[in-house]
């Protein structure tokens, strides 16, 4: 009797083959779902990153704009504060000439009346400049300060302090807190 040879591969019953296919399909579906979830997480991470970058860019732009507005306000305030600087600078030589003219000693009555008129104009001009914040710089007897004085001469005077201003050669002026023209002075050594 010849025995039946067993096949090398064992045949599975039909039910087992179907369940194996279903398991494979379930594994494939599960793998597809994992891939989709990873892709969604990746998209979510990308969107979150883009949102953070946009927020950062927005905050930087806002800070830049605030700084620009602050600088513009400071510039406008400075421009308003020193609006008269050019006019004052041009009027200082006129003021110097008035002061020189007022130092003349009048000999005739006509000269006295002209000098009185000039003195009235000078006082009006000085008052108008003071109204804009122009002040003369004090010099004689004060210590030399290079921020407000310009030393053009030196001299030796034992009765004065060293580095003190001995004489004012040309008056200096400030406009509010800014030096418009430094005083030309003679300084003790």
What would the keywords be for this entry?
single chain; 189 residues; alpha+beta; Nucleotide Exchange Factor Grpe, Chain A, domain 2; 2 domains; 3-stranded antiparallel β-sheet; 3-stranded mixed β-sheet; 3 helices; 6 strands; 15% strand
Would you give an account of this structure?
Helix content is 58%, strand content 15%. It has 3 helices and 6 strands; from the N terminus they run αααββββββ. The protein has 189 residues and is an alpha+beta fold. It has helices spanning 14-81, 85-102, 109-131; strands at residues 134-136, 149-155, 165-170, 173-175, 178-181, 183-188. The longest helix is centred in the first third of the chain and has 68 residues, at 14-81. It is rod-shaped and about 140 Å long. A hairpin with a 2-residue loop joins strand 4 (173-175) and strand 5.
Fold topology:
Blueprint: H1 14-81, H2 85-102, H3 109-131, E1 134-136, E2 149-155, E3 165-170, E4 173-175, E5 178-181, E6 183-188
Parallel strand pairs: 2-6
Antiparallel strand pairs: 1-4, 3-6, 4-5
**What is the rounded distance between the termini?**
143 Å
The largest pleated sheet is described as:
3 strands, antiparallel
What is the H/E string? HHHEEEEEE
- Uncertain segments: none
What is the CATH top level name of the largest domain?
Mainly Beta
Number of strands: 6
Average of pLDDT: 86
Gross morphology is rod-shaped
Helix/sheet category: alpha+beta
Strand fraction band? 15-25%
Query: How many structurally independent domains?
Result: 2
Q: Tell me roughly what share of residues is in helical segments.
A: 55-70%
Task: State the CATH topology of the largest domain.
Answer: Nucleotide Exchange Factor Grpe, Chain A, domain 2
Q: Please give the order of strands in the largest beta sheet.
A: 1-4-5
CATH architecture of the largest domain: Roll
């Amino acid at each position: 009797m010849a025995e039946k040879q067993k096949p090398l591969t064992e045949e599975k019953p039909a039910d087992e083959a179907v369940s194996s296919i279903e398991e494979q399909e379930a594994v494939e579906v599960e793998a597809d779902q994992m891939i989709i979830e990873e892709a969604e997480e990746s998209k979510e991470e990308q969107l979150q990153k883009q949102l953070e970058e946009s927020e950062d860019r927005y905050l930087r732009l806002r800070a830049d704009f605030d700084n620009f507005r602050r600088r513009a306000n400071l510039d406008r305030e400075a421009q308003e504060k020193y609006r008269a600087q050019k006019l004052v600078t041009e009027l200082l030589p006129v003021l110097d000439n008035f002061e020189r003219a007022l130092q003349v000693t009048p000999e005739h009555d006509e000269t006295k009346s002209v000098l009185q008129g000039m003195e009235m104009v000078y006082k009006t001009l000085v008052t108008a400049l003071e109204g804009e914040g122009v002040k003369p710089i004090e010099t004689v007897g004060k210590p030399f300060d290079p921020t407000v004085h310009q030393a053009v001469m030196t001299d030796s005077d034992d009765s004065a302090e060293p580095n003190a201003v001995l004489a004012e050669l040309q008056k200096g002026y400030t406009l509010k807190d800014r030096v418009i023209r430094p005083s030309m002075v003679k300084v003790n050594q």
